[in-house]
Amino acid sequence: ADLSARDVERANFVFSIYDFEGNGTVDAVNLGDMLRALNLNPTLATIEKLGGTKKKNEKKLKADEFLPIFSQVKKDKEQGTFEDFLECLKLYDKEENGKMMAAELSHTLLSLGERLSDAETEEVLKDCMDQEDDDGFIPYEPFLKKMMA
């Protein structure tokens, strides 16, 4: 996906916001935030693979290094992977035990990405979701596997 003039303009604008020192570089620790500001949602693994860092001042990126990264993530965005969705649902896993609130799952399906209608959401949940436990939690990995099958 070669970038349109509009994409380049948007990317340069976001770059300029994160160029805190005004010297034509951004800290690679901000790469994920920058991509999210451009309506992309790369996984942490993707951000790291493309040069994002976990700590400040490990690496600087110039605009001409950021644009190809933006282009790559924009291209990859077309197809979300199982891992991408799993990362997303892990955000709701407060206990880190592979479970999330069933109610949050339906809210997530209704509000993220290409929004599903209430009827579509109900159908997906009915077909793919395991029974909630007494506290209203469901395991989300089996749900994802069924949904993407």
Automatic annotation (TrEMBL):
Myosin is a hexamer of 2 heavy chains and 4 light chains. Coiled coil: none annotated. Keywords: Motor protein, Muscle protein, Myosin, Repeat. It comes from Asbolus verrucosus. The keyword Ribosomal protein does not apply. InterPro entries: CALM/Myosin/TropC-like, EF-hand-dom_pair, EF_hand_dom. This is Myosin light chain alkali. GO terms for molecular function: calcium ion binding. SUPFAM superfamilies: EF-hand. GO terms for cellular component: muscle myosin complex.
